[in-house]
Amino acid sequence: MGLSGTRSQATRPRPPSARGAPKAQAPSFKEVERFPQDAGPDAKGRSRWPQRAPFFSQRGGHRIFAAVYDPVTAPLERAVLGAHRSALLAGIGGLVLDVGAGTGANLAHFRSAGKVVAAEPDPWMRGRLATKAAGAPVPVEVRGDAAEALGFEDATFDAVVCTCVLCSVRDLPAALSEVRRVLRPGGRLAVLEHVRAADGFAKWQRTLQPIWSCFNAGCHPDRDIAGAITQAGFVFQSTETFDPMPSWVLARPWLKAVAVPAAKASA
């Protein structure tokens, strides 16, 4: 007790656990990170943007993005993309791998395939994919393989399909290397992707890519997908470029193409 009859606070020992303990910090929102100085691709075509989950995502997938994807893209599918999907996919036969199959936009357009293996790593997208697979015109097997790590033997598939996926894979060269590995001799790669613009609009695509990616499940509008396919050892057999989007949309123009591995180009 002190002279005034109260306990002295100055001489009270502090608990050992409190001595030198750092001040508690408020938890940070893990989905948000500062933009790097250079968010463009590195020398191998891989994004310098930190590989964190994009905005509107949850650990283990993109729940909100998956829920709104079909309603948001339905007008574009009806007006433009649906016809391009049909033209690209209707004649593909044999065993087909649909990489990053999303919610299953391609399934209704397969007419000649003996079987389609639809690989989608995002569980929220895959749930919607499985529902559509039940009503597809050809047999469909749904799997969770990521594009960069396909769980198949070499030379398994007659064709590999990549539509609206190469913009968002984490490692584009690795994904295309896997695609080439699992293709059988004489196999084809069918592509429907938005690509980097060939004019000054590419500068805006690169500048705004971090913001665009955050709200679009990791989509990179500034990727040179055609160049990456060539660098991965493919030769294009047919290409068509079209631009159906409003001028302010970063995801333009679009490429519809068929390619084969360079060593098999003459087959």
Commentary on this structure:
Helices cover 27% and strands 20% of the residues. With 267 residues, it is α/β, with parallel strands linked by helices.
Annotation keywords:
267 residues, alpha/beta, 7-stranded mixed sheet, 7 strands, disordered N terminus
Number of domains: 1
What would you call the shape?
A: globular
Within CATH, the superfamily carries the name Vaccinia Virus protein VP39
Q: Beta-strand level of the residues, as a percent range?
A: 15-25%
Give a count of the beta strands, DSSP E runs of length 2 or more.
7
Could you tell me how far the N terminus lies from the C terminus, measured between alpha carbons in angstroms?
97 Å
In round numbers, the mean pLDDT is 79
- Give the SSE string: HEEHEEHEHHEE
Outline of this structure?
This protein is of the alpha/beta class and about 270 residues long.
List the helices and strands and how they pair.
Elements: H1 63-89, E1 94-99, E2 113-119, H2 123-133, E3 140-143, E4 157-163, H3 172-182, E5 183-194, H4 201-215, H5 225-231, E6 234-242, E7 254-261
Parallel strand pairs: 1-2, 1-4, 2-3, 4-5
Antiparallel strand pairs: 5-7, 6-7
